[in-house]
Specification:
Blueprint lengths: L30 H25 L3 E7 L6 H7 L9 E5 L5 H4 L5 H4 L8 E5 L8 H4 L5 H4 L2 H14 L2 E9 L2 H13 L9 H5 L4 H14 L7 E5 L3 H18 L11 H18 L1
Parallel strand pairs: 1-3, 1-4, 2-3, 4-5
């Protein structure tokens, strides 16, 4: 398995997605061999998230971006689901409401960032405001082009206040996307996901690719890195993301907080209560 640095976009680098193979899997990896590793990461992730929640000093924000059918829901289902919902939530950003449009583009994002001790997953994110608005000319170039710096400033402030940020671009090929659309058509359980936009947006594939390359190049920073995850193979996507999340949480060195009460006194009260209960039985 590649180290996470192999998927990380170096700050200041220029990204060309054609140089990144969406079908990549390590030469010794298979779906069969990956599953135990994913499960091991999930167990470790559960423990690390518990420590983060108990510590109540830091938080984690995970941003997922991908083309349609890229696998964002799959990551939530197969990777993030190992975390305790008490300290973890998923936020999906849809088309902005009239109230949201009456504010700056980061207003609705600010309200959803994680509290201390919490993990939040953005299923789509503030990066939609340099993607779809650019591709479909929803705002002038002089507006969206300023947003890269605004996003970097926003994320830098979050990091300075204890929020760690991981951003994953799920990189799939145009052929794989069409294959997944067909699976939705053929599977009654998936047909609810089908929309006209799935197919009309394919006409803008090249424009989206250029928009992704710019945001990956301009907004991968030392504080809040982007990772380009080869995602044609779902099992490899899950393995890579699981390992990166675990590596990040482990690097924080979070220890469980010490008790805020005298354990000896509490234990004595417990034994006293047990004895009282026995005498009353």
């Amino acid at each position: 398995m590649k180290e996470s640095a192999e998927f990380r976009v170096a700050a200041g680098s220029s990204v060309k997605l054609n140089d990144c193979d969406p079908e990549f899997v390590d030469k010794h990896e298979t779906k069969h061999s990956a599953l135990p590793k994913v499960e091991e990461c999930q167990r470790r992730m559960d423990d690390l998230q518990y420590r983060l929640y108990a510590d109540q000093r830091r938080s984690l924000l995970v941003c997922l971006q991908a083309p349609d059918a890229g696998g964002k829901d799959g990551v939530v289902r197969h990777v993030i689901s190992s975390m305790n919902p008490q300290g973890c939530r998923v936020v999906s950003f849809k088309q902005p409401s009239p109230v949201e449009l009456a504010h700056d583009f980061l207003w609705r994002i600010e309200q959803q960032v994680p509290r201390r001790g919490e993990v939040v997953i953005f299923n789509r994110s503030h990066y939609e405001d340099v993607l779809i608005v650019r591709v479909h000319d929803l705002v002038p170039k002089e507006v969206w082009s300023r947003r890269y710096d605004q996003i970097n400033d926003f994320e830098r402030r979050l990091v300075a206040n204890g929020t760690h940020i991981l951003k994953f671009f799920l990189h799939i090929s145009k052929e794989e996307q069409l294959k997944r659309f067909k699976q939705r058509l053929d599977d009654p359980a998936r047909r609810w996901k089908i929309s006209e936009a799935d197919y009309t947006e394919r006409e803008y594939w090249a424009s989206y690719e250029r928009a992704y390359e710019d945001l990956l190049s301009k907004c991968s920073t030392d504080e809040a890195p982007w990772f380009i995850i080869p995602s044609d193979h779902k099992w490899f996507r899950d393995l890579a993301i699981s390992q990166i999340i675990v590596q990040t949480l482990e690097s924080l060195g979070i220890e469980l907080p010490k008790p805020t009460v005298n354990i000896a006194d509490i234990r004595e009260k417990y034994h006293h209560t047990v004895q009282e209960a026995k005498r009353s039985a």
